[in-house]
Structure formats: C-alpha cells, structure tokens
Amino acid sequence: MGNTGSSQKVSSQDRAILDLKIQRDKIYQYQKRITALTDRETEIARECLARNDKRRALLALRRKKYQETLLSKTDSQLAQLEQLTGQVEFALVQKDVLFGLQQGTKVLQAINKEIGGIEAVDRLMEETAEARAYQEEVSQMLEGSLSTQDEEDVEDELEALEREVAGPVQLPAVPREPLPERPQRPVEVQEESQEPTRTPVLAS
Question: Three-state DSSP class for 32?
C-alpha cells in the first residue's frame, strides 16, 4: 500500500515531465520542417520580386516570420515549464504547469495546421482562383499576428532581397578611347621685378 501511495505522489509530476518531453520532441520536429519551409518561402519571395510582385513576396516573408515566432515562443515557454516541473514544491505550481502544457498543445496544433507542407508554401506562387483565395486567407490570418518589431524585421528582409534581386548598381562603362587633349594656350610669362643685386661690402 505504501508503495502505491508513493507512486501516486510522483505520478502527476512524472506525467507532466513526460508531456513536456513529448512537446519538446514535437518542437524539434517542427523546427526541422519549418527550416525547410522558410528556406522555400525565401526563394518564393525572391522569385516574386524578380517578377515585380512585391505583395506576394511580402506575404511569403510575413508567413515565414510568423512560423518562426510561434516556434520561438513555444520553445521558451517549454523551457520555463521544465524549470517549474523540476521544483520540489511541484504541487504548488502544478496548475500553472498543466495550463502551460495546454497552451503549448494549442500552439503546436496551430503550427501543424498553419505549416501545411511544401505544397501549401508553393500555393503562394500559383495564379488559380483557389490559390488566390488561399493567399487572401493567409494574409488575413497574419493580420495582427506579428508584432511591430516582427513587421519591421520583415520589411528589412524584403529590402535586402530587393537589393539582392536587383543586383549591383550598374555604373556607366569607362570609355576606352583616350580623352581629347586640352588646347594649348600660350603661356604668358610675367616678368618678375628683380631687385638690384647688392654687392656685399667688406668691412675695412
């Protein structure tokens, strides 16, 4: 009986730790997937800029930033929860840990739904009516989801990509033919007034 009571005392803590590990593993899996997806979205933004489609380029970069922000927030939240579960007074913070796990699960579900795989990313490039409806849906979903700093980061990245796509500024070619010679003007020699040479007088 004593053993049963002992196992019950730690079961809730063990369960929370296990749930945290499961969420952490999912985070790592999503990070790998998102790395591949964000690379593709950067390519899409570059392709859109090459076609002078700045609107869709911005949409791809905002979606990329949103995914990165979601993962970053969930990752830091899990780190905090891991510290809480390691405390001796786990019973005092159990409610906070469970609430945090629930919130983490919701975020992970949102990430999983929002990522959608490479196919969903490529739909940003399509011109069909269905694809345009999807692009509008993504745009509305992102509305208000990014902080002011995130939006500034996206704008900075867009400007950097625009410079990259535009390439280096083309300066005029240096003429290979020799420049015409300047006309020779007669040099006017001005006579300088010369002071009479003084003969040194020897002292007698």
Answer: helix
